[in-house]
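Lab notebook, bench 4. Still working through the backlog of constructs that have no structural model yet. Next entry is a single chain of 223 residues. Request: give me the structure tokens for it.
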Amino acid sequence: MKRVSILCLLILAFLALAVPVSAQTMITPSVIGRLANLPAGSVISWDGGDVVLTPSSNMLTLTGGDITVPNLYVGAAGKIDFGSGDVTVTVSTNTLTLSGASTGYVFSTGPVSSLVPLETIAGTGSITSCMGHTILVTAAGTATLPAGTTLGQRCTVVSTTAAIVSTDVASASDTMILNGTPLTAGFKATSDGTDEATLYCENNATNVWRCRTIHGLHSDGGA
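Model written out:
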């Protein structure tokens, strides 16, 4: 596999501000050191076209080889684009977002992390993140799910003590389907006080949480 040093590309791009050259001129070691201005349609070619760098519409296209870099920096508004937008990777406020892969993401060496993220609520409080998290409720009270507007959210609410624990939706805009039965909009699921009562919830439709009992008993807890 052919590889071109990024340093070499930068040196050539800088030093190629040289004497005027035609669109077919090949940049060779003999012209390095002379200042030039490459006209539209020009290319930088190595080894008779083995590797070619071509500018067009504010874009540099490398053909015939690869670029090896020690580090890759993407600006705040930048993204990594595969297949002209088929799959993209963007970053914003410490969040990496993968978009477009409708058939899923495959990690050949296993899961991204083998650790299940935990969040603890001392009785009553709001669940801050529901992306595969396990929510440990340590006293009687109500754990409130995030708004059901980010599809793909899922978490497991576990009571760590023999106390009545409710799992509520964020507002009357959200509806919970408990063990296959839709509850009134804004209503919550309430455990029977069983120690380690466990409820799994996922948000796979806008403003709808599907929850099912894993351990213990959960019923309609009202508003």
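Notes after review: The chain has a mean pLDDT of 80. The chain is about 5% helix and 40% strand. Flag for follow-up if needed.
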